[in-house]
Amino acid sequence: MKVCIICNQTHYEETIEHIIPRTLGNIHYILPRGLVCRKCNNRFARYENRVLSSSIFVQERLRLGLVQPNHSIQKLDLEEKNLYPFLTKMGFESIYKSKKALLSKYDWQPVLSMLVQGKRNPVLDDKNDTPIRTIKSIPGWIHNFRLGRNHLQLHYAETKDNRLFFHFQFGVIKAKIRLI
């Protein structure tokens, strides 16, 4: 029996959770089996599918050669309501895997509640990450190297007033959200 790191529910599934979706070229940066329950995994898959089906992500995947040109690919507009949970989940899971010290430093309950209930966290609208105290890569060096080969970067930034930001980059697509 295992406990899900997102919803704290016990479960017996052995799901594999890709921190960054496989469709972006990630095959190595994953959480160990069973850390995320099937219910949470399926919930995140819905957000990921909507984000990765957006025109901007489809075009960037085509440009980087991750998918073959296919005229039947349905391109959608990227909606913030799907992007925020996508980035929040990726930020939390990458920090959980690679920067455990940040888990005990901050209160993650509002972030986890947002991921479970799907409610928007008001701090996500804060994009002002100055004055920055530290900005560092989240994955360790081997994962950072492997992700870099697929044009992926994950960073966190801590401000002097104890706010935590997550920076995501895939090719020319850059996104930043406040986690805490």
Topology (elements, then pairings):
Blueprint: E1 2-3, E2 10-11, H1 38-52, H2 55-63, H3 80-98, H4 100-105, H5 109-117, E3 132-137, H6 141-149, E4 152-159, E5 164-170, E6 173-178
Antiparallel strand pairs: 1-2, 3-4, 4-5, 5-6
Helix pairs in contact: 1-3
Main attributes of the structure:
6 strands, alpha+beta, globular, 180 residues
Task: Quickly describe the structure.
It is built from six helices and six strands; from the N terminus they run E-E-H-H-H-H-H-E-H-E-E-E. 37% of the residues lie in helices and 17% in strands.
Strand content: 15-25%
Number of helices: 6
Q: For the CA atoms, what is the radius of gyration?
A: 16 Å
Label the structural class: alpha+beta
Let me know the average pLDDT. 88
Compute the number of strand runs.
6
Distance between the terminal alpha carbons, to the nearest Å? 30 Å
How much helical structure, as a percent, in the residues? 25-40%
Largest sheet: 4 strands, antiparallel
